[in-house]
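Our preliminary data section would be incomplete without showing what the modeling component actually yields. Below, a chain of 223 amino acids is followed by its predicted structure, encoded as tokens that our downstream tools consume directly.
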Amino acid sequence: MLATLIVGYLGVDAYMGSISADTATQIAGSTYLHWYMPGLALQFPITAIAASLRGTGVVKPVMLGQVLSIVVNIVLAPVLIAGWGTGHPLGVMGAGLASSCAVFAGLAIFCRHMLKQERYLKTTPATGGRNSPPGLMLGIGLPSGAEFGIMFVMTTLIYFIIRDFGPAAQAGYGAGSRIMQALFLPVMSIAFSVPAIAGQNMGARQPERVRETFCGPASCARP
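Predicted structure:
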């Protein structure tokens, strides 16, 4: 979290300057990221809690917390951006602030659930070595995390290439990316549920159920 905040705040202006089509876009992007940076940093504890709950088979509270976080963002966005009910529109700054507040609300929901319901989950001091829990987690997590690193590089490169076409082209690409993400929602809903179900059945030594999780009972039936 600390590294994200330090690197983010020190590099956000230079980053936006390298990919923005004009000065107004650079200022707006930097302003948004300055106020959304706390929300990005809070993603680390949220991911740790959510992954821990999924690993023990507890999926519903994670999904509810994420949905409620989105609802908070939807409610706060017009209030902070356009000044609904307050008469003090904050514009782009309000958009970043609304997102950070929504992430904080999601973290609060997760922490409340952990303290009241999931007290069996404890943290232990890390030990060294490749076969230690931290070493195993890095061995599994780094390749998966590399996907997000590649996505960041690809997105940055695209914005850099199209910046000469003007801010309208960059805005159009951003809107198209959001539409594409929405189309991925049904796929992601299945992708996030399958590992939890398969993992539970693997732990219960039920290999047939693991196969059924991925291909269904009919297609997995053996002659």
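The mean pLDDT is 87. The first helix runs from residue 2 to 19. Preliminary results of this kind motivate Aim 1 of the renewal.
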